[in-house]
Design a protein that fits this description.
It contains 13 helices and 20 strands. It has 431 residues and is α+β, with helices and mostly antiparallel strands. The strands form four sheets. Strands 11, 12, 13, 14, 15, 16, 17, 18, 19 and 20 form a ten-stranded antiparallel sheet that branches. The protein has a five-stranded antiparallel sheet with strand order 4-5-9-7-8. The longest helix is centred in the C-terminal third of the chain and has 15 residues.
Length: 431
């Protein structure tokens, strides 16, 4: 086959074939028979974490929702299910996931494997919803893991980086469905962040700051408020008074029209704004399922710093604004609750994620990444596993206290290195 690329087109995979099994039995058969193999999701990683020197195995045909356990509040899905489809199904049946990422286009298994997240002081990464999972190991055997087992193996496997095998099934904890109203505010003064950052991020269910680092203000604040049963939003008789009350947010002015996070782009791909209430799965993502995500052709980086050091970290990056802003579409700052998943960037640490959506100018971006990482080094910033960074393994590895245990788990599940690749060898397995 011709060599394929990731979603953004910046990375060319080395895999020599693409396998699309019809069911779990075929997954087990192909994994057992392969020398080198790797699961491939929606190709939304920007580095080589999903690459393989042998075969790529796509779970696109394993995309069924298998069971909804109403009594215990759980849904079981195959590994190829995307959040967009799952969100519609859950809402139609009266349930919801606690949070979603910016894009509904990504698969559940791929997002959980890399520690992908949404936003909200009390919301953990998407992987924190996982209650149980099934993994096809290197020998083709099927292993079931669950939070109920009381075994730390589960905590090591959920954010598994694709190193343990092919995740064919996940059971997620769900909650009763809920509605969200989203409002966007413009030009939040940076000075307000020094004393007001905690109040800003804790003001709603989910809050995101967008900046291009060009001025002394945050371009946009996206505030997603979870509505209670009696909230009807701007379609109620009190809509005028509600609009007046929402005209200002910590010194930022309420947007009067729908906006895209990237200046100058159409807001058509974006989720509904202006306080119009809607179901959780249509408001928590920034982008709609039926449109091209984000800016399209782009590069992405993200770093996680301790929540309490977020303002200091942002101030350090701001010193590089003249080098960053010419290469940037937009930056997003979000908060994420801590978890106990070994390889999660939020392991035992309430975090702020500082995200960069770059223009597709890799040679220039590659020069600025070490400057950002040097500024963030005092904060022990952890890079997003599926995005671009320049930190050497010697700086990344000490940030994960459970890495030695994770290495042992990798060798137990994959003793011959069937699921390994250059990325895992360099950042995880090299001691």
């Amino acid at each position: 086959m011709s060599r394929s690329h990731n979603w953004a087109g910046n990375y060319t995979y080395n895999a020599t074939e693409l396998i699309e099994p019809e069911d779990v039995a075929q997954v087990r058969e192909r994994v057992a028979a392969s020398g080198r193999i790797k699961a491939l999701g929606t190709r939304h990683s920007f580095n080589g974490i999903a690459d393989s020197a042998g075969s790529h195995l796509s779970l696109a045909k394993l995309n069924r929702i298998l069971e909804l356990d109403r009594e215990n509040g759980r849904v079981t899905v195959e590994g190829g299910v995307r959040y967009g489809e799952l969100g519609h199904y859950l809402h139609d049946n009266g349930f919801a996931l606690p949070n979603l990422a910016s894009l509904p286009h990504i698969t559940v298994s791929g997002a959980c494997a890399t520690g992908t997240h949404g936003s909200g002081d009390r919301n953990g990464s998407l992987a924190t919803s996982v209650h149980a999972m099934e993994i096809v190991r290197a020998d083709g055997s099927l292993v079931s893991l669950s939070r109920d087992d009381g075994d730390e193996t589960f905590q090591g496997a959920v954010v598994g980086l694709g190193a343990l095998g092919v995740v064919t099934k996940l059971t997620l904890n769900v909650v009763p469905t809920f509605r969200v109203a989203q409002r966007v505010y413009e030009e939040l003064p940076l000075a307000r962040l020094e004393q007001g950052l905690d109040a800003i991020f804790s003001s709603a269910y989910s809050v995101s700051l967008f900046t291009d680092w060009k001025k002394d203000s945050i371009n946009q604040v996206w505030v997603k408020a979870r509505l209670t049963g009696g909230d009807s939003g701007p379609d109620s008789a009190s809509s005028v008074r509600a609009a007046e009350a929402e005209a200002e947010f910590h010194g930022a002015r309420g947007a009067r029209t729908r906006l895209h996070p990237v200046p100058g782009l159409s807001a058509d791909p974006c989720s509904e704004q202006l306080g119009v209430p809607g179901p959780w799965h249509e408001r928590l993502p920034h982008f709609r399922m039926d449109f091209t995500p984000s800016a399209g052709e782009e590069l992405q980086s993200e770093y996680f710093v301790p929540r309490e050091q977020a303002y200091a970290a942002l101030s350090a990056i701001y010193e590089l604004r003249e080098k960053i802003s010419p290469l940037l579409y937009i930056s997003e700052i979000r908060t994420i609750a801590e978890d106990n998943l070994w390889m999660s960037p939020c392991y035992k640490r309430n975090s702020a994620g500082i995200h960069f959506t770059w223009k597709p100018e890799w040679e220039k971006v590659r020069e600025v990444l070490p400057l950002i990482e040097r500024k963030l080094e005092p904060f022990e910033a952890r890079p997003h596993w599926g995005k671009l960074f320049a930190m050497p393994p010697g700086r990344v590895q000490p940030l994960y206290e459970k890495l030695p245990e994770f290495r042992r788990l990798v060798r137990e599940f994959d003793p011959a290195g069937k699921f390994r690749n250059a990325f895992l060898e360099e950042y995880i397995l090299k001691e």
